[in-house]
Amino acid sequence: MILTAATTDLFAFDEARLDELATSHPGPFFAYDLAAARERFDRLRAALPARVRLAYAVKSNPGLPLLEAFAGRGAWFDCASAGEVSAALAAGGTGAGMVFAGPAKTERDLQAALFAGARVQVDGIEDIARLHALHTGETPLAVNVRVNPAGGVSEVASIIGGVGPSAFGVDEEVLEAFVTEAARFERVEIRGLQVFSASNELDAGRLLANHRTALRIGRRLQELLGRELDLVDLGGGLGIRYALTEPNLDVRAVGAGLGRILGENDWFTGELLLEPGRWLSGPTGVYAARVVRTKVSRGERFVMLEGGINHLLRPLLTGQSFPTLAVRPGEGVVDGERATTTLAGPLCTSLDRVGTGDLPVDLRPGDVVMFGQTGAYAYTQAMSHFLSHALPEQHWVC
Ligand SMILES: *Cc1c(COP(=O)(O)O)cnc(C)c1O
């Protein structure tokens, strides 16, 4: 695990604000900048052609104020459980602007999606059979089919899975047989496609190559169905940098590329859908945990924090930490000589490590370690219940 010693560049708040947050909140907390969320949504929207819709992936951060901020700007929502559907509706989202995904949808999930009026991303014939049984409308229920591409996809770190055996979707090789089988269920009609195989992509060219693959599959699907597709869903995957050494994803290049892809695919008259989670919510959040004690064990420096993998699990899951800096309440960012340090949490397991990297030697109890880019895949992804510590607070800054 590598911690990046960062300036406030990878943080949603400036030094004065971080200091204020550290001073006013004694326990571990997440703080989110809603103005940054609104700005990011508007910036991405402005970079995309009009035929591309934006659905916020609720799983990246289902916090209600964030959902409300996006709903207020006309966002669609990508939901994957009955709970996420409720949250999106409570925030002002609508079924007409909702897609519903998941590799193991129960009847309860499907009922929630149907009740809301969401477009379901079908992952296999079971979804179609269940929807056929549940759907009571006069006209056939329009669904998307999720396809697992046979090639032409790259993913740098395995998060969604790239190309290969997958729990998600219908393998491209068996798409024709799937379409034939699905036609037996006349109350369900495949009208769209979803392809999403790579997450946290920082290179616009690679992202667009994956999108081209999706349109190639879409063309074949439309031919197999003999019916026009109205929606091709390209999934999420827009990356953010977790270190200053990484590039920013060029979203204007993504927008221009999608415009070119639409131009190259004149067989397709429907809309494209992007479902970013991380890109929209990640940079809005900061996690903060106080130093409880420090120690040197057999030559290795440890700093023990009040929160660990019960609040931030991503480092353990992906091997990569969040950008980190330390604040001394009332004094600002702690600087000075640095040494390799392991940040450990309060849990009674050696798994509880949130990073190793160069941190100030002067760190002491009461200092607050801040983790940037923690607006996505942090609060709800952690193993909050393990060892029964209190949940971190969440603060929404307008
Ligand atoms: C997780 C997920 C997303 C969001 O992915 P990001 O990499 O956070 O943009 C979008 N769509 C689906 C179906 C997902 O499972």
From TrEMBL:
Pfam families registered for this protein in UniProt: Orn_Arg_deC_N
Active site (record annotation): 348 (proton donor)
An annotated Gene Ontology molecular function: diaminopimelate decarboxylase activity
Top-rank lineage group of the source organism: Bacteria
Name of the molecule in the record: Orn/DAP/Arg decarboxylase 2 N-terminal domain-containing protein
Alphabetical keyword list: Amino-acid biosynthesis, Decarboxylase, Lyase, Lysine biosynthesis, Pyridoxal phosphate
UniProt entry tagged with the keyword Metal-binding: no
Required co-factors: pyridoxal 5'-phosphate
